[in-house]
C-alpha cells in the first residue's frame, strides 16, 4: 500500500507547468474549447494531446488512491445493502398482502365513487338545464312584455325590450330553435312598430292641418290685442304731448311690460310627432323620417296655398291667411323643440315658397278689387298676419312690398267711393241751417270738428251756420284720413304723412270741390241754397286746418309741425276760390230776383201829376227782399261775405234804377216821377245805412258804407232834381258830384226828361218860374251833350 503513494509522487514531480494549468482548468470545469482551437490554429495539437493524456493518467492515479482509502467503507456499505434487500423483500410481502386487502375494500368504494360521479354529472346537467331554462324564461318573459307593450301602443318600451333581447340575451339563448324564431321576429316587430307609428303620425298630420286655422286665428287675435294696446298707448302719448305743448299740464309716463309665454297660449299637441321621431331614431332611420315629414308638410303647404274657387277672396281671405299663419307657427315650434327633426334651411324653403305664392296671389286679387273698403279689410288682416309671423322670426318684407305696391290703387278706389258719398250727401242736403237740439248733437257735429265760433256752449236749440252737409262731409273726410292711415300704417313707409296729405288735397280739390262747383253751376239752386252752399264752403275752408292736424295726429306727427303757414293744404286756397265762385253765383241769383222785382218799375207812371212824397210800390218789395237776404246772410255767412252780398245787391239795384230810366218803354218822364224815385232811393239808403251798422260791418269797414253802392242812382237823381243840371258839363263839378255817370246814359235819360207835368193846367202851376229855369238849364245840358256825343 506504501508503494503506490511513492509512484504518485514521482509522477507529480514530473509534471510540467502547462500540465498543471490544464489540470487546474479541468478541475475548475472551465471550457477547454479556446485552448484546443488555439492548438490546432498553431498547428501543434500533439503537445496538447500529450498534456491531456498526462492529465488522464494523473486522474486515474487519484481514483485508484481514493478507492484504496475507502475500500473498507465500501465493503461495509455492501453488507448493509444486502440487509436492506432482505428488509425490502419482507416489506414487499407485507405490501402485497396490504394491497390485496385494499383491493378488496376499494372495489366497493370504487362502485360508490362511480355512482357519486354519475350523480355529480347528473347534477351538473340539471344545473345547466335550469340555467338554460332560466335564460329561456327571461327571454320569453321579455317577449311577452314586448307583445304587451305593442298591444298597448307603448312602442318605445317595446323597442327598448327588443333592444335588450337583441343585445343581452339573444346570443345566450341555448335553444337554437328559440333563438332562430326570435331572430326572425325582431325585424317583423320593428316593421310593425314603424307602420303603427307612421299611421299615428299620419293621423297627427291630418289633425294639425285641421287645427292650423284655429292656431293662426288665436295668434292673430293676440296680435290684434297687442296692436290695440300699442295704439291706445300711442294715442295717450299724443294727447299728452299736445297738452304739454299747449302748456296745460304735466304728465308722468309709465311703461307697462307684459310678458306672456306664447307657447302657453297656443296649445297644440306635438307629442305624436315627438314620439314618431324618437321611435324612428331608435330604429336608426331618423333621416328617412325627416325626409318623410318634410315632404308631407310641404305637400300640405302647397295645398293650403290654393285659394278657394267657390268663395270670393273677400270671404275666404281670413281663413286662408290664418291657415298659413298656423302652419308656420307649428313649423316654428317643431324647429325649436323637435331636436333636429326640421332644419332651418328647410323652414326657409317652405317660407320662401309660401311668400312667393302669397305675394303673387295678393297682387292678382288686389288688381281685381273694386272696393277700397274690401281692399283695406284684406290689407289690415295681412298686416296682422305679418306682425304675427314676424314675432316668430320670419322675414315678411316681401309681403309688405306687395301691400305697398297697391297704395295708389287703394287711394284711387277710396277717392271714387268718397266721390259717390259726396254726391249723395250734396243731393240729400236741404241746404237749410242745421238745428242742434241738445249738447250731444253740438258735440258730435260741431266740437268734434272744431267748427265752433266760440268756446262758450250755446243755448239750445242752436242754429248752426251750416247745413247737415258740413258734418257729413267732415265725417267722411275724417274716415278717409283714417282709412288712408290704416292702409299706410304697418307697412314699408316710415313717414307716410306726405302721402296722406297729398290724397287729402286730392279729396278736397278733385272730389269735393268739383262736386260742389257742379252743384253751384247746376242752375237748380235757389238764393237760400246758394247762400247756404257759400256758408258751407267757408266753414269747410276753416275746417281744413282741423283735417290737417287730424291727419298729422293719426300719422304720429307733432301738431306744431303742421301749424306753419307753408304746411297748410293746397285745398284751402282752392276752396277759397270756390267760395268766391259761390258768392258770385249767389249774387247772380240775388240779382236775378231783384231783376224780377225791378220789373215792377214798368208799372211806374213816369208822367204822374201826383206830387206826394209816397214812393213806388216796387221799393217795398225790394226792401223786404233785401232785409230777408241780409238777415239770412248775417246768420250764416262771414262778415266779409255779408259785405259782398250787400254791396252786390245794392249796386245792382242802383244800376237797375238807372236802367229803368233808359228802358225803351219809358218814352218820357217828368219831375214828379223823379221825385218819387228820389223818395224810393232815400228809403233804400236809410235801409242800407241801418243794415251796415246793425250787422257790425261799420266796425270792420269804418270808412265805407252800403250807401256808396247806390252812388250811380243817387248822382243821377241829384242831377235830375238839380236846379242847374248844365253843371254836369263842368269837369270839376262832374268829378265831384257825378263821377259815376256815363255821358251817353245821361244824354239818353235827359232826352226823355220833360220838366212840365202833363195836364191842361200845367202852365198855371206856382212852380212854373222855377221849373222854367231848370228847364232852360236842362235844355242847355241836352244841347251840350248832343254836341259832345
TrEMBL record:
An example Gene Ontology biological process? intracellular protein transport
Please indicate if the UniProt record lists Iron-sulfur as a keyword: no
Q: Where in the cell is it found?
A: Cytoplasm, Cytosol
Top-level lineage group = Eukaryota
Query: The Exocyst complex component EXOC6/Sec15 N-terminal domain covers which part of the protein?
Result: 51-220
Question: Could you tell me the keywords of this UniProt record?
Answer: Coiled coil, Cytoplasm, Exocytosis, Transport
Which Gene Ontology cellular component terms are annotated? cytosol; exocyst; membrane
Functional summary from the UniProt entry: Component of the exocyst complex involved in the docking of exocytic vesicles with fusion sites on the plasma membrane during regulated or polarized secretion. Involved in polarized cell growth and organ morphogenesis. During cytokinesis, involved in cell plate initiation, cell plate maturation and formation of new primary cell wall.
- PANTHER family per record: EXOCYST COMPLEX COMPONENT 6, SEC15
Family membership? Belongs to the SEC15 family.
> What is the name of the protein in this document?
Exocyst complex component
Amino acid at each position: 500500500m506504501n508503494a503506490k503513494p511513492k509512484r504518485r509522487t514521482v509522477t507529480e514531480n514530473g509534471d510540467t507547468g502547462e500540465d498543471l494549468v490544464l489540470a487546474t482548468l479541468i478541475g475548475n470545469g472551465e471550457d477547454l474549447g479556446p485552448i484546443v482551437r488555439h492548438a490546432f490554429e498553431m498547428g501543434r495539437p500533439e503537445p496538447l494531446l500529450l498534456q491531456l493524456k498526462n492529465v488522464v493518467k494523473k486522474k486515474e492515479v487519484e481514483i485508484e488512491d481514493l478507492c484504496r482509502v475507502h475500500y473498507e467503507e465500501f465493503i461495509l456499505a455492501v453488507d448493509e445493502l444486502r440487509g436492506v434487500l432482505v428488509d425490502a423483500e419482507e416489506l414487499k410481502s407485507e405490501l402485497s398482502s396490504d394491497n390485496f386487502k385494499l383491493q378488496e375494500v376499494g372495489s366497493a368504494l370504487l362502485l360508490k365513487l362511480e355512482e357519486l360521479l354519475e350523480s355529480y354529472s347528473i347534477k351538473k346537467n340539471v344545473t345547466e338545464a335550469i340555467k338554460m331554462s332560466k335564460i329561456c324564461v327571461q327571454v320569453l318573459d321579455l317577449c311577452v312584455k314586448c307583445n304587451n307593450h305593442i298591444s298597448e301602443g307603448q312602442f318605445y318600451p317595446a323597442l327598448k325590450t327588443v333592444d335588450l333581447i337583441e343585445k343581452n340575451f339573444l346570443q345566450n339563448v341555448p335553444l337554437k330553435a328559440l333563438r332562430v324564431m326570435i331572430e326572425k321576429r325582431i325585424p317583423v316587430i320593428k316593421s310593425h312598430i314603424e307602420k303603427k307609428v307612421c299611421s299615428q303620425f299620419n293621423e297627427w298630420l291630418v289633425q294639425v292641418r285641421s287645427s292650423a286655422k284655429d292656431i293662426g286665428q288665436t295668434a292673430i287675435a293676440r296680435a290684434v290685442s297687442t296692436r290695440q294696446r300699442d295704439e291706445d298707448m300711442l294715442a295717450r302719448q299724443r294727447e299728452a304731448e299736445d297738452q304739454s305743448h299747449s302748456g296745460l299740464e304735466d304728465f308722468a309716463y309709465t311703461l307697462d311690460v307684459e310678458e306672456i309665454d306664447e307657447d302657453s297660449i297656443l296649445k297644440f299637441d306635438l307629442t305624436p310627432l315627438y314620439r314618431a321621431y324618437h321611435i324612428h331614431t331608435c330604429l336608426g332611420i331618423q333621416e328617412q323620417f325627416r325626409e318623410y315629414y318634410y315632404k308631407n308638410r310641404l305637400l300640405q303647404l302647397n295645398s293650403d296655398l290654393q285659394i278657394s274657387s267657390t268663395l270670393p277672396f273677400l270671404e275666404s281671405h281670413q281663413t286662408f291667411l290664418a291657415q298659413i299663419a298656423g302652419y308656420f307657427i307649428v313649423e316654428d315650434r317643431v324647429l325649436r323643440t323637435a331636436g333636429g327633426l326640421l332644419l332651418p334651411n328647410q323652414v326657409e324653403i317652405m317660407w320662401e315658397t309660401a311668400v312667393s305664392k302669397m305675394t303673387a296671389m295678393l297682387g292678382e286679387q288686389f288688381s281685381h278689387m273694386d272696393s277700397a273698403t274690401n281692399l283695406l279689410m284684406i290689407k289690415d288682416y295681412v298686416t296682422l298676419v305679418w306682425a304675427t309671423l314676424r314675432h316668430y322670426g320670419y322675414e315678411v318684407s316681401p309681403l309688405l312690398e306687395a301691400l305697398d305696391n297697391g297704395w295708389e290703387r287703394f287711394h284711387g278706389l277710396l277717392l271714387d267711393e268718397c266721390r259717390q258719398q259726396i254726391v249723395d250727401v250734396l243731393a240729400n242736403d236741404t241746404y237749410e241751417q242745421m238745428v242742434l237740439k241738445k249738447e250731444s248733437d253740438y258735440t258730435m257735429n260741431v266740437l268734434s270738428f272744431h267748427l265752433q265760433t266760440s268756446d262758450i256752449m250755446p243755448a239750445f236749440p242752436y242754429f248752426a251756420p251750416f247745413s247737415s252737409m258740413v258734418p257729413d262731409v267732415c265725417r267722411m273726410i275724417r274716415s278717409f284720413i283714417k282709412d288712408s292711415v290704416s292702409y299706410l300704417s304697418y307697412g314699408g313707409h316710415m313717414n307716410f304723412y306726405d302721402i296722406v296729405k297729398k290724397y287729402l288735397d286730392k279729396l278736397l280739390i278733385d272730389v269735393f270741390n268739383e262736386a260742389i262747383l257742379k252743384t253751384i253751376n247746376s242752375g237748380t239752386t235757389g238764393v237760400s241754397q246758394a247762400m247756404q252752399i257759400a256758408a258751407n264752403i267757408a266753414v269747410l275752408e276753416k275746417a281744413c286746418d282741423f283735417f290737417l292736424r287730424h291727419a298729422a295726429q293719426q300719422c304720429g306727427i307733432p301738431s306744431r309741425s303742421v301749424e306753419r303757414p307753408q304746411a297748410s293744404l293746397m285745398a284751402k286756397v282752392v276752396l277759397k276760390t270756390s267760395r268766391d265762385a259761390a258768392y258770385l253765383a249767389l249774387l247772380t241769383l240775388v240779382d236775378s230776383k231783384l231783376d224780377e222785382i225791378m220789373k215792377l218799375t214798368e208799372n211806374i207812371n213816369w208822367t204822374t201829376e201826383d206830387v206826394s212824397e209816397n214812393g213806388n210800390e216796387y221799393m217795398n218789395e225790394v226792401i223786404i227782399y233785401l232785409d230777408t237776404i241780409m238777415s239770412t246772410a248775417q246768420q250764416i255767412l262771414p262778415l266779409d261775405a255779408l259785405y259782398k252780398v250787400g254791396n252786390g245787391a245794392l249796386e245792382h239795384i242802383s244800376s237797375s234804377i238807372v236802367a229803368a230810366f233808359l228802358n225803351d218803354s219809358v218814352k218820357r218822364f217828368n219831375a214828379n216821377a223823379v221825385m218819387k224815385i228820389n223818395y224810393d232811393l232815400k228809403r233804400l239808403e236809410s235801409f242800407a245805412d241801418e243794415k251796415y251798422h246793425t250787422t257790425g260791418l261799420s266796425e270792420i269797414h269804418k270808412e265805407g258804407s252800403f250807401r256808396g253802392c247806390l252812388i250811380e242812382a243817387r248822382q243821377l237823381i241829384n242831377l235830375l232834381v238839380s236846379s242847374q243840371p248844365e253843371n254836369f258839363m263842368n269837369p270839376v263839378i262832374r268829378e265831384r258830384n257825378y263821377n259815376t255817370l256815363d255821358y251817353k246814359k245821361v244824354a239818353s235819360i235827359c232826352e226823355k226828361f220833360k220838366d212840365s207835368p202833363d195836364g191842361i193846367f200845367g202852365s198855371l202851376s206856382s212852380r212854373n218860374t222855377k221849373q222854367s229855369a231848370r228847364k232852360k238849364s236842362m235844355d242847355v245840358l241836352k244841347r251840350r251833350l248832343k254836341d259832345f256825343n
